[in-house]
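2.7 Reproducibility. Because tokenized structures are sensitive to small changes in the input, we list the exact sequence used for Energy-coupling factor transporter transmembrane protein EcfT, including any N-terminal residues retained from the expression construct. No trimming or masking was applied before prediction.
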Amino acid sequence: MLREITLGQYYPVDSFIHRLDPRVKLAGTFLFLIALFIVNSWTAYAVLALVLFGFILLSKVPFSFMVRGLKSVLFLLLLSVSFNLFLTPGEELFRIFFLKMTKEGLQIASMMAIRLVMLVLSSSILTLTTTPNALTDGMEKGLGIFKLFHFPVHEIAMMMSIALRFIPILVEETDKIMKAQMARGADFESGSIFDRAKAMVPILVPLFVSAFRRAYDLAMAMEARCYQGGEGRTKMKPLRYTGADYLSYLVLFLILGLAIGSRFISLP
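Resulting structure tokens (single pass, no recycling of outputs):
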């Protein structure tokens, strides 16, 4: 289950999406999420799903590998769908004891499920096609205007990049600890919810110790290399826009414009 988490991983392959400037991919993810929450019709969702599928094909990341990341949010997906399905007032479809499913609840739950799935997939495209270093450079360069307000752009970008980089590392560490505990007779699947929560303590303690140790080692390595923040630092590979980047911006803003326009026309 833990190995199904794809967020924070990088999939090395040569593709059109991989070659794009990281600023384009960051802006593209942000604009796609805005469009995702603007649309409110099934036709518009179908168009966005086709656009997202096109992006996945251009990234050359196997679709099966990308879908694996949905398993990590399956519980959140089922929880949010269930709440909207049975707690939304409206026209009753059927009832299970005191739980009432409504027509409005079914529509809202379905749209929320689609939004969450496409949100995870679009975010996965960003991290799977962008190295942590490129992601840091893209965030720092893209948010450079905030330096005028003395906002620590470089430090924020570095922290976010390190956090994303540590996700697969900590997932792998958790998997190793769980297998070691299961080899010693630990049971994480039987018993009540309180028993399962109690069984997680032997995992959380060594995981926190390992995380703090890795953080300390990273801090010592950065200090040994005289890291003092982004002031005065140069880039080995400066970011420069190409024609493909400008074309991608045009396509992204066109998608956002169509999403906004769909609010003013009647679509099924």
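Residues 153-183 form the longest helix (31 residues).
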